[in-house]
Amino acid sequence: MDIILIAGMWLDATAWHEVVPELERLGHRPVALTLPGQGDGDTAATYDDQVATIVSAVDAADGPVVVVGHSAACALAWVAADARPEKVARVVLVGGMPNADGETYFGFFEPVDGVVAFPGWEPFEGPDSDDMSAELKARVARGAVAVPAAVTRGVVRLHDERRYEVPVTMVCPEFTPEQAREWVEGGDVPELARARQVDYVDIDSGHWPMHTRPRELARLLADLS
């Protein structure tokens, strides 16, 4: 099965470079995306451009696909299910949750000079990054891409309630499955509260398991496909 991989803010397709060969070895067809404005050099890219790229990747697959979103890109993975509910077999959310209709895609950091640059590791101290070595942090920071404000300030639009029939798996890195279930069942994640099936899977990592637990993450994704 095709597995579409969408990395979170500041990351391009190379974030999955250790996950991809393991998924291939396990018999799947991983498609790691570099999104407009997030590694392709397009400084004028918008949120809608990113959505269009993801939907095009879903359309290009021969059959049903699994769409994997990491961190902020969990919102993009959910938008793919909304746009193509008949073709997305499962949405996998790694370390993040979908936005509701009408919400700003990524409003956690204010743009400066038209972009949201990687803010350094200070905002992610603690469970998010405790499993990353200083060398790994330096490598990830060197490869981080400043994301255009027109991406981060895009407005999420959802149209098709058939998305709630698409099975969802939450992969829980720096938080536990119990915490995630509590957030969903408590109404903090309205989109998932309405989903027909939400499964919760633990992974012993911080916020970036594609870097710190790539083989484990690949095996987990393969088992869901």
From TrEMBL:
This is Alpha/beta fold hydrolase. Residues 3-219 form the AB hydrolase-1 domain. InterPro entries: AB_hydrolase_1, AB_hydrolase_fold, Sec-Metab_Biosynth_Hydrolase. The keyword Ribosomal protein does not apply. PANTHER family: AB HYDROLASE-1 DOMAIN-CONTAINING PROTEIN-RELATED (PTHR37017), ESTERASE_LIPASE_THIOESTERASE DOMAIN-CONTAINING PROTEIN (PTHR37017:SF11). It holds the Pfam family Abhydrolase_6. SUPFAM superfamilies: alpha/beta-Hydrolases (SSF53474). One of its GO terms (molecular function) is hydrolase activity. Keywords: Hydrolase. It comes from Nocardioides cremeus.
